[in-house]
Write the C-alpha coordinates for this entry.
Amino acid sequence: MSVAALARLVKLSHSLFALPFAAAAAALVGRAALPDGLPSRLVLVAIAVVAARTAAMAMNRIADRAIDAQNPRTLRRELVTGEVSLRAAFVLLGGSAALFLGVAFGLSARCGLLALPVLAVLLGYSYAKRFTWACHLWLGAAQALGPVGVSVALTGGLEPSAAVLGLGVGAWVAGFDVFYALQDLEFDRGAGVRSIPARFGVRDALFFGRALHLVAVAAVATAGALGDRGPGWLAGTAVLAGTLAAEHLYVAPGGTLRRERINVAFFNYNAFASLAFALCALGDAILWR
Protein backbone atom coordinates (compact mmCIF):
# COMPACT_ATOMS: atom_id res chain seq x y z
CA MET A 1 0.00 0.00 0.00
CA SER A 2 1.25 3.49 -0.83
CA VAL A 3 0.41 7.09 -0.03
CA ALA A 4 -0.70 7.44 -3.66
CA ALA A 5 -3.20 4.60 -3.18
CA LEU A 6 -4.64 6.31 -0.10
CA ALA A 7 -4.88 9.57 -2.05
CA ARG A 8 -6.74 7.76 -4.84
CA LEU A 9 -9.04 6.13 -2.30
CA VAL A 10 -10.33 9.49 -1.10
CA LYS A 11 -9.84 11.26 -4.46
CA LEU A 12 -7.65 13.88 -2.84
CA SER A 13 -7.42 15.73 -6.15
CA HIS A 14 -11.14 16.50 -5.86
CA SER A 15 -10.29 18.95 -3.09
CA LEU A 16 -10.21 21.26 -6.12
CA PHE A 17 -13.99 21.39 -5.70
CA ALA A 18 -13.96 22.29 -2.00
CA LEU A 19 -11.00 24.62 -1.47
CA PRO A 20 -11.92 27.23 -4.11
CA PHE A 21 -15.35 27.78 -2.61
CA ALA A 22 -13.80 28.06 0.85
CA ALA A 23 -11.53 30.74 -0.61
CA ALA A 24 -14.55 32.46 -2.17
CA ALA A 25 -16.34 32.39 1.19
CA ALA A 26 -13.27 33.96 2.82
CA ALA A 27 -13.30 36.71 0.19
CA LEU A 28 -17.02 37.24 0.74
CA VAL A 29 -16.78 37.75 4.52
CA GLY A 30 -13.32 39.34 4.49
CA ARG A 31 -14.56 42.81 5.46
CA ALA A 32 -16.11 41.41 8.64
CA ALA A 33 -13.17 39.13 9.52
CA LEU A 34 -11.54 39.56 12.92
CA PRO A 35 -8.05 40.96 12.28
CA ASP A 36 -6.18 39.09 15.02
CA GLY A 37 -4.22 36.15 13.61
CA LEU A 38 -6.07 36.24 10.29
CA PRO A 39 -3.31 34.63 8.16
CA SER A 40 -2.97 31.67 10.52
CA ARG A 41 -6.75 31.25 10.68
CA LEU A 42 -6.91 31.13 6.89
CA VAL A 43 -4.32 28.34 6.88
CA LEU A 44 -6.26 26.45 9.56
CA VAL A 45 -9.47 26.82 7.56
CA ALA A 46 -7.79 25.29 4.50
CA ILE A 47 -6.49 22.37 6.58
CA ALA A 48 -9.93 21.84 8.10
CA VAL A 49 -11.60 21.76 4.68
CA VAL A 50 -9.22 19.11 3.32
CA ALA A 51 -9.38 17.05 6.55
CA ALA A 52 -13.18 17.09 6.64
CA ARG A 53 -13.43 16.09 3.01
CA THR A 54 -10.89 13.30 3.47
CA ALA A 55 -12.80 11.91 6.45
CA ALA A 56 -16.08 12.03 4.50
CA MET A 57 -14.59 10.25 1.47
CA ALA A 58 -12.89 7.59 3.60
CA MET A 59 -16.20 6.92 5.35
CA ASN A 60 -17.96 6.71 2.01
CA ARG A 61 -15.50 4.16 0.64
CA ILE A 62 -15.70 2.07 3.82
CA ALA A 63 -19.50 2.14 3.89
CA ASP A 64 -19.79 1.32 0.16
CA ARG A 65 -17.14 -1.40 -0.14
CA ALA A 66 -19.66 -4.25 -0.48
CA ILE A 67 -21.74 -2.30 -3.03
CA ASP A 68 -18.60 -1.30 -4.93
CA ALA A 69 -17.59 -4.96 -5.19
CA GLN A 70 -20.82 -5.71 -7.10
CA ASN A 71 -20.88 -2.67 -9.39
CA PRO A 72 -18.85 -3.12 -12.61
CA ARG A 73 -18.01 0.59 -12.64
CA THR A 74 -16.39 0.49 -9.19
CA LEU A 75 -14.66 -2.89 -9.18
CA ARG A 76 -11.23 -1.26 -9.34
CA ARG A 77 -11.65 0.86 -6.23
CA GLU A 78 -8.84 0.37 -3.76
CA LEU A 79 -10.80 -1.28 -0.94
CA VAL A 80 -12.32 -3.75 -3.41
CA THR A 81 -9.00 -4.76 -4.98
CA GLY A 82 -7.18 -4.84 -1.65
CA GLU A 83 -4.71 -2.16 -2.70
CA VAL A 84 -5.77 -0.37 0.49
CA SER A 85 -6.67 -2.44 3.55
CA LEU A 86 -9.83 -1.81 5.56
CA ARG A 87 -7.66 -1.12 8.60
CA ALA A 88 -5.70 1.56 6.73
CA ALA A 89 -8.95 3.15 5.57
CA PHE A 90 -10.20 3.31 9.17
CA VAL A 91 -6.90 4.83 10.30
CA LEU A 92 -7.22 7.47 7.56
CA LEU A 93 -10.81 8.13 8.59
CA GLY A 94 -9.93 8.46 12.28
CA GLY A 95 -6.85 10.56 11.63
CA SER A 96 -8.54 13.01 9.28
CA ALA A 97 -11.60 13.33 11.54
CA ALA A 98 -9.35 13.99 14.55
CA LEU A 99 -7.37 16.55 12.56
CA PHE A 100 -10.59 18.32 11.53
CA LEU A 101 -11.82 18.50 15.11
CA GLY A 102 -8.42 19.52 16.45
CA VAL A 103 -8.08 22.34 13.93
CA ALA A 104 -11.66 23.47 14.62
CA PHE A 105 -10.99 23.70 18.36
CA GLY A 106 -7.72 25.46 17.53
CA LEU A 107 -9.71 28.14 15.72
CA SER A 108 -12.09 28.70 18.62
CA ALA A 109 -14.19 26.83 21.16
CA ARG A 110 -17.29 27.73 19.16
CA CYS A 111 -15.81 26.29 15.97
CA GLY A 112 -14.81 23.12 17.81
CA LEU A 113 -18.27 22.53 19.26
CA LEU A 114 -19.95 23.22 15.93
CA ALA A 115 -17.52 20.86 14.19
CA LEU A 116 -19.00 17.85 16.02
CA PRO A 117 -22.47 17.98 14.38
CA VAL A 118 -20.85 19.02 11.09
CA LEU A 119 -18.73 15.86 11.16
CA ALA A 120 -21.84 13.79 11.94
CA VAL A 121 -23.60 15.22 8.87
CA LEU A 122 -20.55 14.60 6.66
CA LEU A 123 -20.10 10.99 7.77
CA GLY A 124 -23.82 10.24 7.86
CA TYR A 125 -24.15 11.00 4.16
CA SER A 126 -22.41 7.70 3.37
CA TYR A 127 -25.51 5.81 4.56
CA ALA A 128 -28.18 8.12 3.15
CA LYS A 129 -28.47 6.18 -0.13
CA ARG A 130 -29.69 3.18 1.89
CA PHE A 131 -32.95 4.86 2.85
CA THR A 132 -33.67 8.00 0.76
CA TRP A 133 -33.52 9.06 -2.86
CA ALA A 134 -32.79 12.56 -1.54
CA CYS A 135 -29.23 11.52 -0.66
CA HIS A 136 -27.93 14.10 -3.16
CA LEU A 137 -29.60 16.83 -1.13
CA TRP A 138 -27.95 15.44 2.02
CA LEU A 139 -24.60 15.79 0.26
CA GLY A 140 -25.53 19.31 -0.78
CA ALA A 141 -26.44 20.20 2.81
CA ALA A 142 -23.09 18.84 3.99
CA GLN A 143 -21.25 20.97 1.43
CA ALA A 144 -23.34 24.01 2.31
CA LEU A 145 -21.81 23.92 5.77
CA GLY A 146 -18.43 24.85 4.28
CA PRO A 147 -19.03 28.59 3.71
CA VAL A 148 -20.91 28.70 7.00
CA GLY A 149 -17.88 27.28 8.79
CA VAL A 150 -15.55 29.72 7.04
CA SER A 151 -17.71 32.60 8.25
CA VAL A 152 -17.71 31.40 11.86
CA ALA A 153 -13.95 30.77 11.77
CA LEU A 154 -13.05 34.18 10.34
CA THR A 155 -15.70 36.51 11.78
CA GLY A 156 -16.81 34.73 14.94
CA GLY A 157 -20.38 34.45 13.66
CA LEU A 158 -22.54 33.67 10.66
CA GLU A 159 -22.71 36.35 7.98
CA PRO A 160 -25.98 36.18 5.98
CA SER A 161 -24.03 36.31 2.72
CA ALA A 162 -22.06 33.19 3.74
CA ALA A 163 -25.27 31.31 4.54
CA VAL A 164 -26.65 32.13 1.08
CA LEU A 165 -23.35 31.16 -0.55
CA GLY A 166 -23.62 27.87 1.34
CA LEU A 167 -27.01 27.32 -0.28
CA GLY A 168 -25.43 27.97 -3.67
CA VAL A 169 -22.53 25.59 -3.08
CA GLY A 170 -24.88 22.92 -1.75
CA ALA A 171 -27.20 23.18 -4.76
CA TRP A 172 -24.23 23.09 -7.14
CA VAL A 173 -22.78 19.93 -5.57
CA ALA A 174 -26.17 18.22 -5.29
CA GLY A 175 -26.84 18.95 -8.96
CA PHE A 176 -23.68 17.37 -10.26
CA ASP A 177 -24.10 14.46 -7.83
CA VAL A 178 -27.44 13.74 -9.53
CA PHE A 179 -25.60 13.67 -12.87
CA TYR A 180 -22.94 11.38 -11.44
CA ALA A 181 -25.58 8.92 -10.20
CA LEU A 182 -26.98 8.60 -13.72
CA GLN A 183 -24.04 6.29 -14.48
CA ASP A 184 -25.42 3.67 -12.08
CA LEU A 185 -29.15 3.95 -12.68
CA GLU A 186 -29.77 0.29 -13.61
CA PHE A 187 -27.34 -1.09 -11.03
CA ASP A 188 -28.81 1.04 -8.25
CA ARG A 189 -32.33 -0.12 -9.03
CA GLY A 190 -31.24 -3.75 -8.93
CA ALA A 191 -29.18 -3.35 -5.76
CA GLY A 192 -31.78 -1.29 -3.91
CA VAL A 193 -29.56 1.80 -3.77
CA ARG A 194 -31.64 4.98 -3.52
CA SER A 195 -31.00 7.96 -5.82
CA ILE A 196 -32.95 10.50 -7.83
CA PRO A 197 -32.13 8.74 -11.15
CA ALA A 198 -33.10 5.33 -9.73
CA ARG A 199 -36.36 6.69 -8.34
CA PHE A 200 -37.46 9.04 -11.13
CA GLY A 201 -35.56 8.04 -14.27
CA VAL A 202 -33.26 9.88 -16.65
CA ARG A 203 -35.59 12.66 -17.82
CA ASP A 204 -36.60 13.78 -14.33
CA ALA A 205 -33.06 13.41 -13.03
CA LEU A 206 -31.84 15.82 -15.70
CA PHE A 207 -34.60 18.21 -14.65
CA PHE A 208 -33.54 17.95 -11.00
CA GLY A 209 -29.94 18.68 -11.98
CA ARG A 210 -30.90 21.73 -14.02
CA ALA A 211 -33.16 23.07 -11.28
CA LEU A 212 -30.48 22.66 -8.62
CA HIS A 213 -27.92 24.45 -10.77
CA LEU A 214 -30.33 27.33 -11.40
CA VAL A 215 -30.72 27.63 -7.62
CA ALA A 216 -26.93 27.53 -7.29
CA VAL A 217 -26.34 30.42 -9.69
CA ALA A 218 -29.14 32.50 -8.16
CA ALA A 219 -27.83 31.92 -4.63
CA VAL A 220 -24.23 32.76 -5.56
CA ALA A 221 -25.37 36.01 -7.20
CA THR A 222 -27.53 36.87 -4.18
CA ALA A 223 -24.65 36.14 -1.80
CA GLY A 224 -22.51 38.64 -3.68
CA ALA A 225 -25.22 41.30 -3.42
CA LEU A 226 -25.64 40.68 0.32
CA GLY A 227 -21.89 40.89 0.80
CA ASP A 228 -21.70 44.11 -1.25
CA ARG A 229 -19.25 42.53 -3.66
CA GLY A 230 -18.21 44.16 -6.92
CA PRO A 231 -17.79 43.38 -10.65
CA GLY A 232 -15.35 40.54 -9.99
CA TRP A 233 -17.99 38.56 -8.10
CA LEU A 234 -20.50 39.21 -10.89
CA ALA A 235 -17.97 38.04 -13.47
CA GLY A 236 -17.33 34.89 -11.46
CA THR A 237 -21.05 34.22 -11.22
CA ALA A 238 -21.36 34.61 -14.99
CA VAL A 239 -18.47 32.19 -15.55
CA LEU A 240 -20.07 29.70 -13.15
CA ALA A 241 -23.43 29.98 -14.92
CA GLY A 242 -21.87 29.58 -18.35
CA THR A 243 -19.81 26.57 -17.31
CA LEU A 244 -22.80 24.83 -15.74
CA ALA A 245 -24.86 25.48 -18.88
CA ALA A 246 -22.04 24.02 -21.01
CA GLU A 247 -21.88 21.00 -18.71
CA HIS A 248 -25.58 20.32 -19.19
CA LEU A 249 -25.27 20.62 -22.96
CA TYR A 250 -22.24 18.31 -22.95
CA VAL A 251 -23.85 15.61 -20.79
CA ALA A 252 -27.28 15.75 -22.42
CA PRO A 253 -27.19 17.45 -25.84
CA GLY A 254 -30.74 17.98 -27.03
CA GLY A 255 -31.98 16.34 -23.84
CA THR A 256 -30.39 12.98 -24.75
CA LEU A 257 -28.12 11.61 -22.02
CA ARG A 258 -24.56 10.70 -23.03
CA ARG A 259 -23.38 8.59 -20.11
CA GLU A 260 -19.85 8.19 -21.43
CA ARG A 261 -19.41 11.92 -20.96
CA ILE A 262 -20.42 12.09 -17.29
CA ASN A 263 -16.99 11.44 -15.79
CA VAL A 264 -15.37 14.13 -17.95
CA ALA A 265 -18.09 16.59 -17.04
CA PHE A 266 -17.94 15.66 -13.35
CA PHE A 267 -14.28 16.56 -12.97
CA ASN A 268 -13.30 18.91 -15.79
CA TYR A 269 -16.30 21.21 -15.90
CA ASN A 270 -16.84 21.40 -12.14
CA ALA A 271 -13.15 21.83 -11.31
CA PHE A 272 -12.93 24.67 -13.84
CA ALA A 273 -16.13 26.27 -12.52
CA SER A 274 -14.96 26.28 -8.90
CA LEU A 275 -11.43 27.48 -9.67
CA ALA A 276 -12.54 30.22 -12.07
CA PHE A 277 -15.19 31.47 -9.68
CA ALA A 278 -12.76 31.52 -6.74
CA LEU A 279 -10.19 33.49 -8.72
CA CYS A 280 -12.83 36.04 -9.68
CA ALA A 281 -14.04 36.27 -6.07
CA LEU A 282 -10.50 36.76 -4.75
CA GLY A 283 -9.78 39.32 -7.45
CA ASP A 284 -12.93 41.15 -6.49
CA ALA A 285 -11.89 41.21 -2.82
CA ILE A 286 -8.49 42.66 -3.74
CA LEU A 287 -9.60 45.23 -6.31
CA TRP A 288 -12.99 46.28 -4.93
CA ARG A 289 -12.56 46.31 -1.17
In short: The mean pLDDT is 91. The domain at 3-287 is CATH 1.10.357.140 (Tetracycline Repressor; domain 2). The radius of gyration is 19 Å.
